[in-house]
Structure formats: structure tokens, C-alpha cells
Design a protein that fits this description.
The chain is of the alpha/beta class. The protein folds into two domains: about 140 residues, Vaccinia Virus protein VP39 (Rossmann fold); about 170 residues, Rossmann fold (3-Layer(aba) Sandwich). Strands 3-2-1-4-5-7-6 form a seven-stranded mixed beta sheet, with helices on both faces. The protein has a seven-stranded mixed beta sheet with strand order 12-11-10-13-16-18-17, sandwiched between helices.
């Protein structure tokens, strides 16, 4: 990413004025932005881990563009979700009359975006490097229908482009919801709550007094606020791998992510399990669903006294763990 951005600046076609804000939409934690003037950069990043990463480096960060503030230039990092990528570009061209640079890997659909923009916005000749492309267009371009209707109702719930399971109820979450016991306890946490499907099922239980909805994606959390109007719900924009409960929970329910980008990363789910164990009462329970091939039982056995599979099919397994083991350290 940093190589393509540097090459674009060196080429001269994408020029950053000496004053004014430069909006940078959705850079990942491995994006090197050092070629840009740091004091002018404002990062738009809804993912809490990346938001905290760039904040720690001294960048000015916001979770979403407010729709009103303006910039002298903008940079958009393409995302895997095509509708979200288009929406970010549409936001960028509305936010600035200056140049808008689009950077992305082939696996993020950068070629498709370039092809579509050639019919609408006269993009520059692309620079190809490191299995991706970078090019730029003029701000203020007319991009009809590229702004996403977000949030939008799907299967009776509000979702948005780019969030997990944006097209409807995730089958693994549905399997987990059907396996949950009628009584979960008074205090429950939903780690990686997404747009709130599982929390909605949890709140249908009358004995539940509090549900902590922990979600790293600010956009998904805004969908949750539309899907759940319940005073028992507490919303946390937080990375579940480092979240600490303010009170011991009786149960944790979760469908943890297991990839970063396109790469499988079971360590994410393992970190969710360790967070859950720390959040629970001594007699607490975890109810989780996972792809059948993922080796979560090893971590569960390390963190809990009892582990069992309680439901599943050829794709997914629902696991129940009871009585967290306490570290002696």
C-alpha cells in the first residue's frame, strides 16, 4: 500500500495542497501513510483496532465522515465489499473538489472499480505495483447511485455494506440461536455482536437483565442501535479481544470472526474465548458457533473445566463451555 501511494505522489498527478485536510478512508493497520503530511491527515476508520492503531501514532481519527466537513484531497483504500468501496469513493468525491486517490489490491476488486470509473469520472492511468493498482480522479465527480442506502432493511434487520453478514441472517448465527437454552442468566455478553441478531434473541428471554453488545465495527454498531431498542442493552464500540467487562457475566454468546482480509486467522476466535473466560462468573457459560474445521476445542479446554458440542451440521458446530479456569498468575 505504501509503495503505491508513494509512487502516485512522486508521479505528480496526485498532488496534495500545502494546507487543508486530507481525508484517508479505511486504511488497514499495515498501511504506511508517511508519504502524506501527517498534520493534514484525517483518518476515517470505523474498525476499532485500526482506529486505535492510527490514534496511537498521533493521527486525527474519526469513525465515520460527518457528511459536511471538507478536504483538499482524499485517499480511499478499496475494501472487499464492492458496495462499500463504491460508497467510500462517493463520500470522498463529495468531501473534496481536489484529487481523490483510490488504492487497492486485485483481491479487493480494484480492477472492477477502475473499469466502472472509466465510464463516469475520467480516472488517471493506473500505477500497478505489489499485486494492486492506484489511480486518481477529480473530486466533485458525479457518481450516481454509488452512495449506499445504509442502513437498509434485510430480513427484518438494518444492515450496511461491508458489515459481517450484510445480506441477511448468518446461518451459523441462526444455528447458535436455535441451540441457546431458555435461561442464560441475568448478565450476558455478545462478543462480536455485528448488527445484533444474536443479541435480539438473547433479549427475548425475560430473565436477562443486561446484555453487553461488544462490536469493533462502528458501522455495525450503528445498525444495532436501530435493530435493538431495549434499555437492557449496553453498546460497546470495542475490540472484543481486549474488552473487559465492568461486571461478571453469567453467559457469553458469540460467533467470532476467524479471518483478517482473505487469510484465515483462528487466533482471533481463540482470543475471543480468552476474553469470554475472563468476563464470566466462576460458574459462567460460553455458547459459541464456529466453522467445523476450526480447532477451538483446544483453547476451550485450556480455559474451561467442561467443553461439549451441543449442535451442528456438516459446516458448523455449536460449542458449550462451562466453569472458566482462573489463572494463578
Amino acid at each position: 500500500m505504501s509503495v503505491r501511494l508513494s509512487l502516485a505522489l512522486e508521479a505528480g498527478g496526485f498532488a496534495v495542497p500545502a494546507s487543508g485536510s486530507v481525508f484517508v478512508f479505511h486504511p488497514s493497520v499495515d498501511a504506511d501513510l508517511s508519504a502524506l503530511p501527517k498534520d493534514q491527515v484525517k483518518i476515517v476508520q470505523p474498525q476499532r483496532p485500526a482506529y486505535e492503531h492510527f490514534t496511537s501514532l498521533g493521527y486525527d481519527c474519526v469513525p465515520v465522515w460527518d457528511g459536511e466537513s471538507v478536504a483538499v484531497a482524499a485517499v480511499v483504500f478499496a475494501t472487499r465489499a464492492k458496495a462499500q468501496g463504491r460508497d467510500l469513493i462517493a463520500q470522498a468525491v463529495r468531501a473534496t473538489q481536489g484529487p481523490v486517490l483510490i488504492d487497492g489490491a486485485k483481491t479487493d476488486g480494484i480492477d472492477s472499480l477502475l473499469k466502472d470509473l472509466r465510464r463516469l469520472a475520467a480516472p488517471s492511468a493506473p500505477i500497478s505495483k505489489a499485486h494492486g493498482k492506484v489511480f486518481w480522479i477529480d473530486g466533485g465527480a458525479d457518481l450516481p447511485n454509488w452512495r449506499a442506502d445504509a442502513p437498509a432493511l434485510v430480513d427484518g434487520y438494518y444492515t450496511a455494506p461491508g458489515v459481517f453478514s450484510a445480506d441477511g441472517i448468518d446461518p451459523a448465527s441462526l444455528l447458535l440461536a436455535e441451540a441457546l437454552p431458555q435461561k442464560l442468566g441475568r448478565r450476558v455478553a455478545d462478543l462480536g455482536a455485528g448488527w445484533g441478531f444474536l443479541s435480539k434473541q438473547i433479549l427475548a428471554r425475560q430473565d436477562v437483565e443486561t446484555v453487553h453488545l461488544v462490536e469493533a465495527d462502528h458501522i455495525a454498531l450503528e445498525c444495532v442501535r436501530l435493530n435493538i431498542d431495549d434499555t437492557r442493552a449496553q453498546f460497546h464500540w470495542a475490540d472484543a479481544t481486549g474488552w473487559q467487562s465492568s461486571e461478571p457475566c453469567d453467559a457469553v454468546v458469540m460467533n467470532p470472526p476467524f479471518h483478517t482480509g482473505r487469510a484465515a486467522e483462528p487466533a482471533l476466535g481463540q482470543a475471543f474465548i480468552r476474553t469470554a473466560a475472563k468476563a464470566l462468573t466462576p460458574g459462567g457459560h460460553v455458547w459459541m458457533v464456529a466453522n467445523r474445521h476450526l480447532p477451538y476445542e483446544v483453547t476451550l479446554d485450556q480455559c474451561f473445566a467442561k467443553v461439549e458440542e451441543v449442535a451442528g451440521d456438516n459446516r458448523f458446530k455449536v460449542l458449550h463451555a462451562h466453569r472458566p479456569r482462573r489463572s494463578k498468575s
